[in-house]
């Protein structure tokens, strides 16, 4: 059984394919991180790198079932790419170009809104399928182990700059995230127990996690453990609590035990983990103690310099503040500034008030503030540049992987000649269809059916088949694909064509002679020239060697069916005499 996966296929994993489609072949036409070379029953083609569109793929392969992944399976996904793909796919089905037995549409939770969105537009498109049975399955939002989803990538990038995780959602809002592998058995059971009903199914977790639970889950990661968490509660997603008890009863499917099972940090690349805020200590109290010790050392060195009367203008507290703000950020830099000022007042030995009334102290404090702010700003700019470089490196890496994948496909295609047999319009698929059509055509319509099939390949202005009456000079029209073909053909006025026909070879109008056909070749049942294939309105420059060979093969195939038809008539006459 051949299965086509289209749409938002970035979530598809090897485990999901093995559990959802244990038998048959799987064809992914979309973005994917899977390597088809490791699985002989898996083919992965990226639309941007493919020479063929979705229509040609569907016409080339006899798919029995199609699983469509909507963009709404991604949380806060503004893309309308799946809507375009769905529209193209449904137009192919409605036009009757292909036929499939199972169509499963996977989408995200249904939102409560008074304004129709992209999800509603996709649902309206599905209603255009009046004769094709399909099923809609609403699922929680999916999370990919390899792809940096827009929501989580933005969350972690902001955390590395601000030193805290900020959620625009409320702490009590449901966080409907799950991995696709947990739903593989459900997809398998629906396809395995398919019926010809158009219906909408849904699964809503009996105990959905909240964004508070999600934050706690993320803080289990070591690099995120010490980050502060803030919930603004400004963006609320209201869902329709769609529950499908039939999924458990009808398909005998059990709900996954673990809902929050998202290896967020582990799933990101090492470079992305290093871009998170520097984590020097494992405890906030220990972190503050380190800052205090540093402030004491800086103040002690400054007092030592002052007592020894060294001719140094270097300020150790100022150097300490610059280092802290540059390495730890502006927030920790101002915390260290407070410690430095506190220690200076503490070590003033009863002269704190006079120190506070001193203009030199406030000038020094202003210098500390400016230096700390400047160092913190430079640290933020450095993180921004680092994040931009990492994003650029990731884009280059994806481009390199795409080029490698494209090169691998080119090598495979050159070895197996896959692109020559991909569609019915070229290669063995075309001739298989031609053979079946001619085998089913009645005797009287054999010529008309043959010309009709050849017309899909050549698309000439005029084509006809003539039968020679006497000799190889005059011939009468038997069948034509276009109007205007003469009923009688006199080859005496076309000596070059007559010479080629008598020699038993094909005539090709290489010199573009006026009044001559573009192509002409004899049809010889039982070895005798009996018919003549006449083609006009095709420029020889646009008729390559492959097309010429295919016409010759077409003539041989038509000769075979003419011999079979004549043999059948002779056998019928013999049986009638007996």
Automatic annotation (TrEMBL):
Ranges annotated as spanning the membrane: 310-327, 334-353, 359-378
Organism domain of life: Bacteria
Keyword annotations from UniProtKB, A to Z: Membrane, Transmembrane, Transmembrane helix
Protein's name according to its UniProt entry: NAD(P)-dependent oxidoreductase
